[in-house]
């Protein structure tokens, strides 16, 4: 049972770590305002991915194509730092190798660690990015317990609503949610929310975060900005929302890929515009094993739980570096 209070945005809900076999670790630099989030599946999980944005930064996503050889992954990394942040995945690989976790490959076990990054270099100190050490530390502290959201991990430097320029953006963040489907099956989501457009409550249509006009003290509708500006003051790739769906069900790679594809409906219902030329929107799916469940059911609920996680990120984000957050503007 999920309860919500519409105006304050307080949500009582689970997290992706409610899914058996999933651990999460966050590490951030609160001075530089960047960080990374590691989703561990140490026993291995069947994985799929769907990249919808036109400016992605990713690692090992080709490996997840159902026609390719590797069946299971051992972690997913979500990171700030733009393409520099992909280095965090190397630290996660080191952590897993030290624990003899990985794909048997002759003389070595090779941990399979796909990753996706978002752009947060305009926040804090852009010369400091998540690196191998930060990734290692995030993996080391990962657990199946409740973890911090909002200005944590990959959401540390995340922002929302940059179509009118970065100076009018609001704070994005890291969010998570879970839904119990019955018969012991749980589906969960984690997401770092950093879109060029705005975030809306799909139940009410209310714009929660976006381009904030400080003089009029209101959020500008991103669709109005798109209609009225012939040229946008935004760089491609300087945004991006990245997330992971996890479920303790038995899926093939093709089915996991389909669930990731359907989960993007959660982006489309909350982010305007989603999957733009200026975003690198990406969703991974991890299936840790268990009973077979309908892909249509899992994909539908993946979209719902992703929608919940995106709202959770906005409701829990905190004002930082003069970038206002929903909780401070609309208490």
Task: Describe this structure as you would to a colleague.
With 331 residues, the protein is an alpha+beta fold. It has 6 helices and 20 strands. Strand 1 and strand 2 form a beta hairpin. Helix 1 packs across helix 2 and helix 4 crosses helix 5. The protein starts with a strand and ends with a helix. The N terminus is likely disordered.
Q: What labels describe this entry?
A:
single chain, disordered N terminus
Level of helix content?
Answer: 10-25%
In total, the number of strands is 20
Overall shape: it is globular
Mean pLDDT reading: 92
String of helices and strands: EEEEEEHEEEHEEEEEEEEHEHEEHH
Radius of gyration: 18 Å
Report the span from N to C terminus: 24 Å
What structural class do helix, strand and pairing data support?
Answer: alpha+beta
Strand content: 25-35%
The main pleated sheet reads as:
9 strands, mixed
Give the gist of this structure.
The protein is 21% helix and 31% strand. The chain is of the alpha+beta class and 331 residues long.
Produce the secondary structure layout.
Elements: E1 3-4, E2 11-12, E3 23-29, E4 34-51, E5 58-59, E6 72-79, H1 88-98, E7 103-105, E8 108-110, E9 115-117, H2 132-140, E10 159-160, E11 170-171, E12 173-182, E13 185-193, E14 198-200, E15 207-209, E16 211-213, E17 218-220, H3 222-228, E18 242-249, H4 253-270, E19 271-272, E20 282-291, H5 295-316, H6 326-329
Parallel strand pairs: 6-9, 18-20
Antiparallel strand pairs: 1-2, 3-4, 4-6, 4-20, 5-9, 7-8, 10-11, 12-13, 13-18, 14-15, 14-19, 16-17
Helix pairs in contact: 1-2, 4-5
């Amino acid at each position: 049972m999920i309860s919500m209070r519409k105006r304050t945005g307080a949500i009582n809900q689970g997290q992706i770590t409610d899914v058996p076999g999933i651990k999460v670790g966050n590490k951030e630099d609160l001075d530089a305002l960047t960080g990374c989030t590691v989703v561990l599946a140490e026993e291995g999980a069947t994985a799929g991915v769907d990249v919808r944005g036109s400016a992605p930064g990713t690692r090992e996503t080709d490996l997840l194509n159902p026609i390719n050889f590797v069946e299971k992954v051992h972690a997913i990394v979500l990171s700030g730092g733009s393409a520099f942040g992909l280095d965090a995945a190397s630290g996660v690989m080191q952590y897993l190798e030290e624990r003899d976790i990985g794909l048997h490959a002759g003389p070595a076990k090779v941990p399979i660690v796909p990753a996706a990054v978002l752009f947060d270099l305009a926040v804090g100190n852009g010369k400091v990015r998540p690196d191998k050490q930060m990734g290692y530390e995030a993996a080391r502290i990962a657990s199946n317990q409740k973890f911090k959201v909002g200005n944590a991990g990959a959401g540390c430097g995340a922002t929302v609503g940059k179509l009118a320029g970065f100076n009018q953006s609001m704070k994005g963040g890291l969010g998570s949610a879970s839904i119990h489907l019955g018969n012991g099956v749980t589906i969960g989501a984690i997401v770092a929310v950093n879109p060029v457009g705005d975030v809306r409550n799909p139940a009410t249509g209310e714009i929660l975060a976006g381009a904030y006009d400080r003089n009029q003290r209101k959020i500008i509708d991103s669709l109005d900005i798109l209609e009225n500006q012939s040229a946008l003051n935004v760089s491609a790739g300087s945004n991006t929302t990245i997330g992971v769906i996890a479920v303790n069900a038995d899926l093939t790679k093709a089915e996991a890929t389909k669930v990731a594809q359907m989960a993007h409906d959660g982006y489309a219902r909350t982010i305007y515009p989603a999957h733009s030329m200026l975003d690198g929107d990406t969703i991974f799916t991890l299936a840790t094993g268990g009973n077979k469940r309908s892909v249509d059911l899992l994909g539908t609920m993946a979209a719902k739980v992703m929608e919940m996680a995106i709202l959770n990120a906005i409701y829990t984000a905190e004002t930082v570096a003069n970038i206002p957050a929903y909780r401070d503007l609309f208490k």
